[in-house]
Each structure stands twice: as structure tokens, then as C-alpha cells.
Amino acid sequence: MEQLNTVIFDIVIEFLLIFLLYSDTIKTSLYKFYTCAVIFFFSVVLLYVLPNIASPLIDFFLEMLLVFILLTDKWYNKIVSFVLVYILDSLLYQALALICDLILGFPIFVGMNTVKEKNIIKTIVILMLAIALFIKIRKKYHFSLSLKNKIFICGYTGTICIILSISQLYQNLINSYFLYSFALLCIVSSGIILAYIISLSERNINYENLQKQTQYVNILKHYYNETKEKNLEIRKLKHDIKNQVNVLSQLLESENYKEALNYIDSLKKHTLNKTPSIIDTGNVLVNAIIMQKQAEYPDIKIISKGAIRNNLTINDYDLCSILNNLLDNALEYSSKNNFSTVWLNIYLEASVLLIDVVNNISAPIDISKFSSTTKADNINHGLGLAIVKETVHYYNGSLKYELSESQITAKVRLFTVE
């Protein structure tokens, strides 16, 4: 029975290690999870029926089967991954066991050790891996849990660890059927919790994608309307200039040079001031974003420098999210502190897209706190900043702030493939 529990703990540790190491490439699905759970359950039954001498062999093949089910890669890469997970499992257990031996006095490596003490150590390893996996998934998908859910998860995992530890110390007093029933309950309930976490992750991913698409559509719609209005203004201006040129030609033909000069001065003061400002960075999307932000903050002038092409390898949604959030931060700060100018420098240097957003500051500020928001919509704003960081990371880029006496600059570097 003790040997059987040891094998069960080993399988759980391997399962958590696989997800912890390869969660970025695993296409997580409940189908895969419950397939592993069914295989795990029948393996437990098989281990109970067969002699203990077969346990290590079954343990080995079951762990390899988990790797081949969960990972979507070539077979030789799966074998390498399995060896890596198997080695890490042993190293992690031995390291923690040594710590317990030195600090708590558990004689794990001394003489004829009991399997019970080893299983208690494995329980601690499982708890540590579960916490690490949860933190990694939460950072990746940016989902948040309420206090009620946090208390539930902590209480659930703590109860499991306590019961498993007690079952090892007082195994002779506890019915084996109870332990198997409890193990099955843990598998089912863990699947429910995992399904809940996956649903939260997918919901946040869908929300992020929807937010990107909405921003993209709104910006292009605004750009279309603005371009249409400016084209109409240009047509009107062209018609006016044609009439004014005719008037000027008549004045010159009649040798009324003084009147012609006065007319030219009048044109400078009125007609030329009506010329619509044209924003042209070489990229339609960037033009659209600048025009939209200029319309949202008419009292702040956005000065753009640089030129990029339209056919960037960076996804339009990603570029839209980065520029929107960086400009929003700079424009909002400038608006609250009565500054009238924000600078945007965007250009290509080899295969690197460089984006600098600069705005004035009223007093020295803490760069680490500059990205924090004072908006009423803290959740969406925080999610927007998280999207920027995630997008920059996706393109192997960097995001940092530089501070001078009177200005702060947000610098983004994105690596593209020509």
C-alpha cells in the first residue's frame, strides 16, 4: 500500500512538472486532462493487483505515456522532454528531502527509511509545484480571482495535503478503500478546478482579442471619416485657389501690382491657414491612430517624426494596442497637467521597429509607478498595459522608460523579420 501511494505521488509530480515546463506549448484541453485521469485510475488498479516489483516499471511507462499525450511535438523531442522531467523529478525530491533531513530531522537518507516519510516529502513537492503552476498560468493569462475563490483553492489544496500526510502516518488505521475513494475524489475535483482556471484563461484571452479588434476597427473607421473630410476640404481649397489664381492673373495683366501684392498677403492670412494638416508616416494604421488621438485630445498637439512602411511583419492588432496605450498614457498625463505637446517617433532600423513616445512632466516622478493608473476603469487600463508587455515580449522586444528633468520617454523596441 505504501509503495502504491509512492507511485501515485510520483505520477502526480510528473503531471505537474510537465504542465509547469511546457504550459506555453501544451494545447490544454479537458479531453487530454480526463484521458490522463482515466489512464491514471486504471494504472492505480493495475498496481494494486500486481506485485510491488512491477510498480517501478508501470510507473516508468505511465509517466512516458503522460508526456506523449500532453505534448504536441515530434516523438524524439517527447523522449527528450520525458528524460528531462524524470531527472527534474528526482532532483527536486532529493533536494527537498535533504532540506527536511537537515532542518526537520526526517531520516530520509539514513538507514532503512520508511516509505511514509518519503511520501510526506512528495506531498510537499506536489503542493509546491501546484502553486508554481498556478502562478505561471495566472501571469500568462492575466486573470484574477476573488477573495472567496482564493480561500477556496487554498483550503482545498491544504486539506488534500493534510489528509495525504495523515494517511501516510496512520496508514494502518485507515481503510484502504477510503484512500482510493479519496484519491478518485481528488482527481475529479482537481479536474473541476482546472476547468475553472482554463475557462477564466480563455475568457481573458477572448476579451483581449475582442479589445484589440474593437480598437482596430474604431481607428480605421475614424481614419476613413477623417480622410473623407480632409479630401473634401482639399477639393474645396483647390476650387478656391483656382478662382483666386484667376483674380491674381487679371490684376497682373492690368498692371495693378499693388493690388496684386495686397491680394497675395490676404491669401497668406486666410486661404493658406485653411489648408488641412496631413499626417503621413508611411503607414496607414499609424496615421489613423495619430488622427484619432488628435481628435480625442484637440488641445494637445501630437508631433510625429519618422517613416515606416505599410507591410510590416508585426500584426496590425498588436501595433494598434501598443501605440494606443502608450499615447493614452502620455496624452492623459499631459491633459491633467496642462501640457500642450506629445511627441511620437516611430521608424525602422534594420529589422527593429523603434517607437518612442515622449511627454513633458511637471515634477520628478518614480518610473516604476508611472504605468499605474488613476482612471476609474482600473481593470481595463491594467489589462491594456498587460497586453502591451505581452505583445512586446512576443516579438522578443523591450519596453522601458527613460526620465530626464522635464520629460519622460516610453521606449519600445520590436524585432521583426524582413
Automatic annotation (TrEMBL):
<feature type="domain" description="Sensor histidine kinase NatK-like C-terminal">
    <location>
        <begin position="317"/>
        <end position="413"/>
    </location>
</feature>
<keyword id="KW-1133">Transmembrane helix</keyword>
<feature type="transmembrane region" description="Helical">
    <location>
        <begin position="177"/>
        <end position="198"/>
    </location>
</feature>
<dbReference type="GO" id="GO:0042802">
    <property type="term" value="F:identical protein binding"/>
</dbReference>
<keyword id="KW-0472">Membrane</keyword>
<feature type="transmembrane region" description="Helical">
    <location>
        <begin position="83"/>
        <end position="108"/>
    </location>
</feature>
<feature type="transmembrane region" description="Helical">
    <location>
        <begin position="6"/>
        <end position="23"/>
    </location>
</feature>
<feature type="transmembrane region" description="Helical">
    <location>
        <begin position="120"/>
        <end position="137"/>
    </location>
</feature>
<dbReference type="InterPro" id="IPR032834">
    <property type="entry name" value="NatK-like_C"/>
</dbReference>
<keyword id="KW-0812">Transmembrane</keyword>
<dbReference type="InterPro" id="IPR036890">
    <property type="entry name" value="HATPase_C_sf"/>
</dbReference>
<feature type="transmembrane region" description="Helical">
    <location>
        <begin position="149"/>
        <end position="171"/>
    </location>
</feature>
<feature type="transmembrane region" description="Helical">
    <location>
        <begin position="30"/>
        <end position="47"/>
    </location>
</feature>
<protein>
    <submittedName>
        <fullName>GHKL domain-containing protein</fullName>
    </submittedName>
</protein>
<dbReference type="Pfam" id="PF14501">
    <property type="entry name" value="HATPase_c_5"/>
</dbReference>
